[in-house]
Each structure stands twice: as structure tokens, then as C-alpha cells.
Amino acid sequence: MERRKKFNQTLFIDINDTEAVKDAAEKIRAGEVVAFPTETVYGLGANAFDTKAVDKIFEAKGRPGDNPLICHIWNKDQIEELTSEVTPAARKLIDSFMPGPITVIMRKSDKVPSNVTAGLDTVGVRMPSSPAAAKFLELCGVPVAAPSANLSGSPSPTRAMHVMDDMYGYIYAVIDGGDSDFGLESTVVDCTGDAPVILRPGAVTADAILKVTGYECSTGKLAEGETPKAPGMKYRHYAPNANVEIINLPDKTEITGDELDGEDHYEIPEIDLEALSDEEKQKVFDIAAPFIFRVKSILAESPVMRIGIFCGAETEAAFKKLNDKIMLSHLEFFTYGRSTDVSAASHFLFEGLRDLDIQDVGTILCQGFTGNGVSRAYMNRLGKAALKTGEVTAGMQPDKRRLRTSLPLYYFDETYTMSVLFVCDDNKCLSPACETFLRDLIWKEVPFVMADDRNTGVELYAESCGLTAMDNLQPDPGMVDAVKEISGKDMGGHKTLRADMSLFDANDLILTIRDEQAYDILNKFPELDGKVYSLSSYIASKGLVIKSSDGRTVGVSIPNPKGQNRATYVHTAKALKAWIELLFPYVLKDLGVKRI
Ligand code: TXA
Ligand code: MG
Q1: How many CB atoms sit inside 10 A of residue 310's CB?
Q2: pLDDT tens digits for 347-369?
Q3: How much distance in Å is there from the Cα of 569 to the middle of ligand 2?
Q4: How far apart are CA 81 and CA 292, in angstroms?
């Protein structure tokens, strides 16, 4: 089904704003789609008894019509109107695990429209335990059909902002109830027969089900050529744009959090490797070593590859301890907690995949786990993200970041400004072109936050000046035309500016077009050391070795187009644009800034 924007904006509602939540519930009854929080992931809800409203879910999500939705309730009495049979196994699971992260598949009643169940004669019922979900569902007063609130094929949303990223303009509202507790979707259990069958592992583990029902649950793995029991299994899932690779724990590593213990695992510990005993240090390096080897081998092959690492705090500390500046400049970390804590990894998995994808890394290395409880659910999702196989559905966007520019303004606790200054001699041609290209990138990628604090927003600026420039002159018309031709951007309004100490002071990173200009500045102002680079020395400091098609290393050579023909201007502008685009993520990293 084609995905079309239907709203100029999507309301962002705080769960504590009861009037607004009531309005959203009213809209559910009136046939609209509203996303809401649960303890697993956010759901994309509509009145389960309203066929047209349910169609809107499939449309907003880009979900194929043959993948059924589950029905969310807040009161067990609602099960009766949704189902025609509750088997003894189903009864036991309902009594023991609801409300909670489980979906029980039963025979459906006639009241459930066939688009909810994708034509199947069974229906999934789930009663979330999160108070926010219960509050909203009770106000709705009807069972709410809801898949996870992501675009079909991408990682499920565990924060309201993830839903905004995927659904802005496509649905009426998103209710913000904070981060999802568990972070992976519910266990789906088929209870239509005697023995329950786990169709999708989750927080309610096979062990827990065995204890309650006495049945050793089989997991509904697909044999070659078999029709999937959970129809969603044939589609691509959880896949970020980047490639995902799983890095396993060393054999016999003891893990924690494999059975849920109701504890929060969200504090990221500070790791001081020096304070650890030799034995503990060894364990940290045993877990980190396969990550480090893999990073080295990827970079040996592709020196411009940027790599995301979804790992424990100890592994990040081990990387930093190596103090390999070039290697570190290529890495983006998303740390979930202690390396061996699978609950923490589960809580953050989808957020981590989304975050690293937004940083535009090519590959994401993720910590694998070997346990039999929560680990099963975690590895199930991670395995699918890594495989990247399965049918791509209508919802998949080749470039999700384009959607992000449609986001409303973010409200930050605080906002910093950061800026980059380009320097050449006369500030008429090369440096203003760089300024224009960087500004364009910034504009495309807003908003930004501090890498170590996503509540602090960052406004990024680009400026340019010339060491020997006169003030207030027009830019070189040849370059104005070339920039316009290759980027559509108009730098005609630029006025030349002479470099001085206050400009250097006010900027956080200074990039000169030629090596001599950086030497000049540093000669005069040695205190700027560490902040001033020529483009070529900056590129070299990141280990960015660019190879031409015949395998030769290509250096940075920026011609001087002045007085030359149009083709030379265009060639120069293209080269500058390519360099600025390549450097942009490294610049962000040096400024301590990331995209959100
Ligand atoms: O935790 C969750 O379950 C979240 C939150 C929002 O409740 N919901 C969720 O929904 O993950 P969804 O649609 O993304 O995944 C539900 C899975 C799909 O793989 C679907 O194919 C399967 O459950 N499913 C739903 N109804 C089914 C049925 N009648 N028979 C077999 N599989 C079913
Ligand atoms: Mg889903």
C-alpha cells in the first residue's frame, strides 16, 4: 500500500497531559491512528473493530496486508469479545503473564475484522503492563490493534522520538510515555493447540512458560519451504541501513540479566580499567579483542569506512585505552551498560541500531549473547537485523535521514553553538565555497546534540575568512556559478572577511585550504595548536587514504581556478564538495557532536 502523508503535523502528547491523552483516545474511537508506549516497544494503534481504521495502520507503517496485527487490551474481560476459544494453555499464560510482555494467539471471534488478522482465523491478544499503556487503552475503551510503531522493516521504536522519526505526518499523534522498559517486542505464543508454540521469543522465556504450562515449548522455526506460522517472519526485519555484524562473547562468559529481574539496567557504568584486578582486566580484553580485530580488518580494507559499535562500557574503555587516534576517529560507540548484561543490551538494542544508523556508519558491530532466556529474544532480533534477508516491504526507505528534516523543533534543556571556520587567502573563492557546502550539510542534517548528552542541543555554523582578504568584497563570480551548478546553492551574497584572532577564537575548528595557511596561523598563534589544520593534514590525521580506480593513493589537491575556464571552476567546486562531505562526520566527532 502506498504511503502518503496525511497530516501537516503529528501531535506529540505527554502521557501526563490527561486532557490530550483523552483527546487521542477519542480520535482512536473516531477511526484515527495514534502511537502509544508499552513496556516492550511503542505500538501504532487503531480501533480493532474498525476495518477502515485498521487499514490506516497498514498504510502508515507500509506493512504488507498479509502480516496480522495483535490486539491490545487493558482488562482481561475484553478477551471474550476478541476470541472464540481459550485453550487451557492459553488460560494458564493469561493468568500467569498478563499484564506483561506476552502475546497469546487464540481462535478469533467473528467480531474481529479480517484485516486485523490478515485473513487468519486466529488473533493475538496482548495486555501491556506499562501503566501508560493501560491508561491510554482504558480511555480508548475498545481493543486497540497495534503493530510496533516503526516503518515496516526498520528497528522497532523504544522512544516516542523514534516514532516521530518514522511516522511524522502519517498519523494523528504520538503519546510519549518515556523509554520502553524491556526494549524488545513481546513473546508471541501460539496457544491454539494443546502445547504452546513460541512464534517469537521475548521477555517471557521458554523456561517460564514450561514452569507454568508444563509444556516444553518448541520455537516455531521455519523449515525450508514451510509457510510461516507468524506471517511476519518472511519479511525483512529490524534492519538499519548499515550492515550489522554480531561479535560473540568468548565461550563460557558468565552473563547477567538473562531472566528478567525487574531491575533498571539503564545506568551506564564508569569504567576505570586501571582499578581492575589483572583477572578482571583480562576478561574485559577477552570480550573486546574480537571487536578490535574486526575493526582493524575492516579499516585495513576500507580506510574510509566508519564503524558503529554496540557494546558494553568495558569494551568501549578497552578501545579508548589503545589510544589509536586514527582508529578511534572511525568509530561511533553506543554503549548499553555492562558488557555481559543482556537485559541492558536488549533494552538499548533498537535505540542503538537507530542511533548508529543516523550517524551514518557503514557497518555496526554488535555484542552477541549465548544465554537461553532473554538472550534468545535478543539474538533473534539481532540475527534478523544482521541477515538483511527477507522481502523488503513498502515501508522500507532507502534513505531514512531524509525523513528527519520534517521533524518539528526539538526542545532541549540547553543549546550550545559550535562553528567551523574555513580559511584561504582572499576569501573570495575556495573558503566561501567550503563554507557553503558545509552549511548545506548542516542544514540537511539538523538537529544535533552533544555526543555525551542528548538533551543538550547544538547549533552548528560554518564561516569563512581570508588571511589577506579585504573586508566586504564580492566573491569570485566563477566560483559562485560553479557552486550553484553543482549544489544549487547561492553563495553570491557572501562578503569577504579578513581573518583575525577574535574569529579564530570564536570558532571551534579551523580548516585552511592550503598547508601554508595553517602554518601561518600556527606560527602567529601557537596557542591555537590542536584547533587548526589544513584540509590535507586533517584528512591525513583521520587516516583517510583514498585510492583511485587503478589502486594509487590519491592526495588532496585543490587547484586554483582563478582566471581559468568554467570547467576548472566546476572541477574545483566538485572536489571541495566531496572533501567536505567526506570530512563532515569526522568534524562532528571532533566537535563532540552527533546527529539525532
Ligand atoms: O510487544 C509487542 O508485541 C509490540 C507492542 C506494540 O505490543 N507489538 C508488536 O507487533 O511487536 P508486531 O505487529 O510488530 O509483531 C507482532 C507479530 C508479527 O510477527 C505477526 O506476524 C505476529 O505477531 N502475529 C500477529 N497475529 C498473529 C496470528 N494471529 N498468528 C500468528 N502470528 C501473529
Ligand atoms: Mg514489528
Answers
A1: 27
A2: 999 999 999 998 999 999 999 99
A3: 50
A4: 55
